[in-house]
């Protein structure tokens, strides 16, 4: 009878709501709430409030509701929130405060599993004698992730370790959340200016099986650790032990990028940005992989000046390295060779079939994206990100019409999303760095 009650207690204490109906109801409340506030907003406009005042109020309420629900549900919902978080820099300053506050909460914490549940998962994954593998284990989680939580411990050989434990029911919840979120992708589009939410969700759904298997994550991390072994700029924590739902890695202490974004010095911001860009562009050549979960919670600056990278559940495998076509597109845009640029884009599938598009219009649309490569040092800022978001979102502009003729081929989706995410973090950091020299060194096809 005691075991049965313990089982009931575990269900009551569960950190991740597992019943599909309950999770669906929470997610369904988001678009309904956003739509309801939009109707109320029209009413307030009729009573004299300006569009800007109404939009500001709607943005605050939408952000509060969105990230409160996403953070509570975890799973695919929290993963989606983290993916959106890097685009926060593109939200106009007067509307951004509630987003920043909500995103900080989302990245920092979420309701934990009970100690009993955590021990049960550890026993299932590491064996009944799992405690003997640790000299110490802290039952209180040090951090939470989209499908698991991280505990601090000491391995039996004295090494401080991070122990990531997957939430029971994470697989079921992840699939349910992403199916539901895809249904409402149009309503969420307004919360991520300058990015396409529907393909973002499709890509997250396509990669969910990889993220659910911590053995695959451990293999990815081992590959990165080998590639950057003894590197003077990048530190990848080593994997200590792994199983399908538990991964144990070396513990890393440093300054999280979220803290640097909030209160870092100019030098810290610039150096964090430089190290992030160096890691992003060098990984395909050095590791034949691309870290594909770019949000501030996965990066920290160590006291010795290196960047440490965490969470390798989402990784793009690039056995041939970064595609040279990407470098060639950058180069043609920089050189103003609009006709050649359009030919390459058509050949690679970036232009919709039978689309009648002008080469100069395409060139003008893409030129701002390579602006960071036109200067020896470029200042990534929220203002620059906001300008790009407004440009792409202005339905009256030629850029908007041009974009409707373009297409993002499926095999380019992940690289595009990760690069956009990295740029989003650079803008949050307000970093100034010599990006062009990094791209010249690491991006095939750019220098030729």
Number of domains: 2
CA distance, first residue to last residue: 73 Å
Q: Structural class of the helix and strand makeup?
A: alpha+beta
Per DSSP, the total helix count is 20
**In terms of per-residue confidence, which ranges show pLDDT below 50 for 5 or more consecutive residues?**
1-15, 31-59
DSSP E strands, number: 14
Largest beta-sheet details: 6 strands, antiparallel
Q: Tell me the fraction of residues in β-strands, as a range.
A: 5-15%
**Helix percentage:** 55-70%
Rg result: 23 Å
Q: Quote the average pLDDT.
A: 79
Tell me, briefly, the overall form: globular
Layout of helices and strands:
Layout: H1 2-13, H2 20-46, H3 51-73, H4 75-85, H5 93-108, H6 115-126, E1 134-137, E2 143-144, E3 148-155, E4 160-166, H7 170-183, H8 185-189, H9 197-206, H10 208-212, H11 214-227, E5 234-235, E6 239-242, E7 246-250, E8 255-256, H12 257-263, H13 266-286, E9 289-291, E10 299-301, E11 307-309, E12 315-317, H14 324-335, H15 338-348, H16 359-366, E13 378-379, H17 382-393, H18 398-403, H19 410-429, E14 432-433, H20 435-442
Parallel strand pairs: 5-11
Antiparallel strand pairs: 1-3, 2-3, 3-4, 4-7, 6-7, 8-10, 9-12, 10-11, 13-14
Helix pairs in contact: 2-3, 2-7, 3-4, 3-5, 4-5, 4-7, 4-9, 7-9, 13-19, 13-20, 14-15, 15-16
Description of the structure:
- It is a single chain.
- The protein has 448 residues and is an alpha+beta fold.
- The chain has 2 domains: 1-212, no CATH class; 254-448, no CATH class.
- 57% of the residues lie in helices and 11% in strands.
- It has 20 helices and 14 strands.
- The chain has helices at residues 2-13, 20-46, 51-73, 75-85, 93-108, 115-126, 170-183, 185-189, 197-206, 208-212, 214-227, 257-263, 266-286, 324-335, 338-348, 359-366, 382-393, 398-403, 410-429, 435-442; strands at residues 134-137, 143-144, 148-155, 160-166, 234-235, 239-242, 246-250, 255-256, 289-291, 299-301, 307-309, 315-317, 378-379, 432-433.
- Strands 1, 2, 3, 4, 6 and 7 form a 6-stranded antiparallel sheet that branches.
- Strand 10 (299-301) and strand 11 (307-309) form a beta hairpin.
- Helix 4 (75-85) crosses helix 5 (93-108) and helix 13 packs parallel to helix 20.
- The protein is globular, with a radius of gyration of 23 Å.
- It starts with a helix and ends in a 6-residue tail after the last helix.
- 40% of the residues are buried.
- Residues 1-15 and 31-59 have low confidence and may be disordered.
């Amino acid at each position: 009878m005691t075991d049965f009650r313990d089982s009931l207690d575990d269900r009551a204490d569960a950190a991740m709501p597992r019943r599909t109906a309950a999770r669906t109801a929470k997610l369904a409340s988001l678009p309904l709430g956003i739509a309801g506030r939009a109707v109320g907003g029209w009413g307030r406009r009729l009573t004299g409030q300006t569009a800007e005042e109404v939009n500001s109020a709607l943005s605050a309420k939408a952000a509060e509701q969105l990230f409160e629900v996403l953070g509570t549900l975890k799973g695919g919902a929290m993963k989606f929130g983290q993916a959106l978080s890097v685009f926060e820099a593109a939200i106009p300053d007067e509307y951004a405060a509630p987003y920043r506050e909500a995103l900080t909460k989302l990245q920092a914490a979420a309701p934990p599993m009970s100690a009993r549940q955590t021990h049960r998962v550890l026993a299932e994954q590491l064996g009944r004698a799992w405690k003997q593998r640790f000299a110490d284990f802290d039952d209180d989680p040090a951090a939470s992730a989209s499908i698991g939580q991280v505990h601090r411990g000491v391995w039996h050989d004295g090494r401080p370790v991070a122990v990531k434990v997957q939430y029971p029911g994470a697989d079921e919840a992840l699939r349910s959340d992403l199916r539901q979120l895809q249904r409402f992708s149009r309503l969420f589009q307004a919360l991520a200016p300058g990015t396409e939410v529907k393909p973002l969700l499709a890509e997250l759904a396509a990669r969910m099986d990889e993220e659910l298997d911590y053995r695959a994550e451990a293999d990815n991390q081992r590959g990165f650790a080998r590639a950057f072994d003894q590197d003077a700029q990048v530190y990848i924590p080593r994997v200590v032990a792994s199983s399908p739902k538990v991964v144990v890695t070396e513990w890393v202490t440093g300054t999280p990028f979220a803290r640097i974004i909030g209160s870092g010095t100019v030098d810290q911001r610039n150096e964090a940005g430089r190290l992030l860009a160096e890691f992003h562009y060098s990984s395909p050549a050095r590791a034949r992989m691309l870290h594909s979960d770019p949000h501030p919670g996965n990066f920290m600056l160590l006291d010795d000046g290196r960047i440490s990278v965490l969470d390798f559940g989402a990784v793009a495998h690039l056995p041939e390295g970064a595609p040279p076509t990407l470098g060639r597109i950058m180069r043609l845009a920089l050189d103003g060779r609009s006709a050649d640029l359009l030919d390459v884009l058509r050949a690679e599938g970036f232009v919709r079939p039978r689309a009648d598009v002008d080469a100069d219009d395409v060139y003008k649309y893409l030129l701002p994206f390579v602006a960071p490569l036109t200067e020896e040092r470029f200042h990534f800022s929220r203002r620059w990100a906001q300008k790009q978001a407004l440009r792409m979102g202005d339905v009256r502009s030629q850029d908007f019409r041009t974009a409707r003729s373009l297409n993002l081929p499926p095999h380019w989706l992940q690289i595009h999303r990760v690069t956009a995410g990295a740029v989003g973090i650079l803008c949050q950091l307000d970093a100034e760095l010599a990006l062009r020299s990094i791209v010249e060194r690491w991006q095939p096809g750019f220098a030729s």
